[in-house]
Amino acid sequence: MSDTTDSPADSSANSTANSPANSPATADRRSFLKTAGIAGAAGALAGAAHGKFGLAPIASAQAQPAAGAKLSAEKWWPSKWGADDEAGASNHITPQKVLEAAKWIRDGKVYKLGRVYEQGMPLFGQRAFVLRIPGAPTGGPFGENKLIYHDEFLATEIGQTGTQFDGLGHIGIQLGRDGDKNEMRFYNGLTSTEISQPYGLAKLGVEKLKPLFTRGHLFDLAGLKGGMMDAGQEITLADLRACMQRQNMQ
């Protein structure tokens, strides 16, 4: 079964299942997270067409490893879930985990983390989202009740477009020579040769992930900062800890 690497999802960069306060980072980890955070923020926000999120240049240095970081040739596969696993950390979502998460439900409120897909949403780089109804209506009338309907025309890229979810086949590491797909490794050591095909992925598609139902922390960064953040503005570990204290989270 094939699938694209990215898929829209009700997930958000502002929620996490682990408390930052309980996971002190090493200097290398802090450097990596800082680099990844800058690149992620730029990717998520730089392409919006309206408001303060106007198109902004994305420096190539933002996507590079932190200073001193080296790509390790050490074999980091198979995963602890076995050589054939394609679900990754979603394997943690067991029936017991679901029951534990359900215990935290107090008032039954539902918070929508996904954003409505529309032209003004954050987009990466020069990507676009254009939805058109070509005519009104485009079909009918049919039958005795004279049924009519609308068609739709959509032009877009599905990755880094609004709220979306990356599958395990989205990010890999090049361990060999440029262009050698046998040494482009993804989750569980799978190579680009094994998973890549013109119409989606042969393996590591997002459909292989298990449903996510777990406790999360929603960080009110806008409340902490006193307003919306600008494209490229860094969210630091100190910011997250300040949010937890401000919101009385544990």
How does this model look, in words?
With about 250 residues, the protein is α+β, with helices and mostly antiparallel strands. It has one domain. It is about 20% helix and about 15% strand. The protein is built from 5 helices and 12 strands. The strands form 6 sheets. Strands 1-7 form a two-stranded antiparallel sheet. A two-stranded antiparallel sheet has the order 2-12. Strand 10 and strand 11 form a beta hairpin. The model is unreliable at about 1-5 and about 5-65 (pLDDT under 50).
- H/E element order: EEHHEEEEEEEHEEEHH
| Main beta sheet strand tally, sense and closure | 2 strands, antiparallel
Span from first to last CA? 41 Å
Runs in which pLDDT lies below 50 for 5 or more consecutive residues are 1-5, 7-63
Strand order of the largest sheet: 1-7
Specify the structural class.
alpha+beta
Number of strands: 12
What is the CA-based Rg, rounded?
A: 21 Å
Q: Give the number of domains.
A: 1
Mean pLDDT: 78
Share of β-strand residues:
5-15%
Estimated helix fraction: 10-25%
